[in-house]
Amino acid sequence: SAECFERGLLAGRHVLINAGPTREAIDPVRYISNHSSGKMGFALAEAAAEAGARVTLVAGPVNLPTPPRVERVDVITAVEMLAACEAALPADLFIGSAAVADYRPVTCAESKLKKEPGSDAGMTLELVRNPDILATLANHPQRPWCVGFAAETHDVLGYATDKLQRKNLELIIANDVSSTSIGFNSDDNAVTLIDRSLKPQALPQASKQKLARQIVAFIADKLNA
Ligand code: CTP
Ligand code: CA
């Protein structure tokens, strides 16, 4: 069951995980980002390594130590994160836990943007879409088994199921981020796993370490089936 974590479950496997936020520069001193701590992805990397996998962890800007026996690649932007993930292929399994910025400024100003003197005018920032890292890997010629996260504030299972199907994933991990006490930046989380059977399996609130082991055990089960 998802409860029983065993060492060696992922022996001989290469597991690729991305984690944390991305940061999209506006000018040399400013950026767009989000509150992702990277804790869930780092916990998954640690659990996968404990399960015997070779783990590559592509990390956005986070303040976390690298788990033992995990190979870490640091990146800043979504475009860099995609390149680092593609460079790490082939992998047996990809877990997309990163909170990838959906948009980036169309250009990064070469010098610090200044307000117009004597004016109180607002300003408009033009944004373009970032690549979808998960969808790109799920449609890659060297396609790994693909796991995504869906952080939602409402209609959580509906949107998660939609992402599973639209991005062509084996598994989506739905995360209700409407509660203030758990989720994005806390040490605890509660998630629901939805695989292609579309039968949701809830994992009740627990530490991100404990949940990571349950998720890794669940995935290893399917991968080894
Ligand atoms: N994701 C990704 N690249 C992006 C955006 C999202 O790889 N540019 C991945 C995330 O890492 C996550 C999954 O897609 O595993 C779902 O991310 P989420 O933000 O919930 O969904 P989006 O597809 O971006 O849709 P929206 O934000 O509009 O709900
Ligand atoms: Ca998004």
TrEMBL record:
Biological process, per Gene Ontology: coenzyme A biosynthetic process; pantothenate catabolic process
EC no.?
4.1.1.36, 6.3.2.5
Domain DNA/pantothenate metabolism flavoprotein C-terminal, which positions?
Answer: 10-221
Q: Which UniProt keywords apply?
A: Decarboxylase, Flavoprotein, FMN, Ligase, Lyase, Magnesium, Metal-binding, Multifunctional enzyme
Keyword Lyase tagged: yes
Q: Does the keyword Ligase apply?
A: yes
Please indicate which superkingdom the organism of origin belongs to. Answer: Bacteria
Give a GO cellular-component term: phosphopantothenoylcysteine decarboxylase complex
Binding annotation for CTP = D102, K112, P131, D132, I133, L134, F149, K163, K167
Q: In which pathway does it act?
A: Cofactor biosynthesis; coenzyme A biosynthesis; CoA from (R)-pantothenate: step 3/5; Cofactor biosynthesis; coenzyme A biosynthesis; CoA from (R)-pantothenate: step 2/5
Q: Per the record, which residues fall in region Phosphopantothenate--cysteine ligase?
A: 15-225
Name the protein family.
In the N-terminal section; belongs to the HFCD (homo-oligomeric flavin containing Cys decarboxylase) superfamily. In the C-terminal section; belongs to the PPC synthetase family.
Protein name as annotated: Coenzyme A biosynthesis bifunctional protein CoaBC
- Organism of derivation: Halopseudomonas xinjiangensis
Q: Please spell out the taxonomic lineage of the organism that makes this protein.
A: Bacteria, Pseudomonadati, Pseudomonadota, Gammaproteobacteria, Pseudomonadales
| Gene expressing this chain | coaBC
Q: Which residues of the full protein are shown?
A: 177 to 401 of 401
